[in-house]
Amino acid sequence: MTAVASSAPMLHLHLGPTTIERRGLRCVRITDRRWRVTQPGGAIVGYLDERDSGSWVVARMTPDRRSFMELGSHPSFDDAFDSLRRG
């Protein structure tokens, strides 16, 4: 039997939570490496993206709600979340 290479993206099973409530904000996992952070009413605060290196990049919604501004890279999810929360 011959193995066939596939160019389809690899899907990963999520074993952890898909929604986390923290300090008045909701974090929702939307991909393997991306979390959306919202206010209780549903307004998007920003995104937390995990990089291949294991660091986390924070993108915050701009005040005019038209784009996102990168706030930097952090060594852990908790540090990235705290950076986004503090703004």
TrEMBL record:
Source organism, top-level taxon: Bacteria
Record-given protein name: Uncharacterized protein
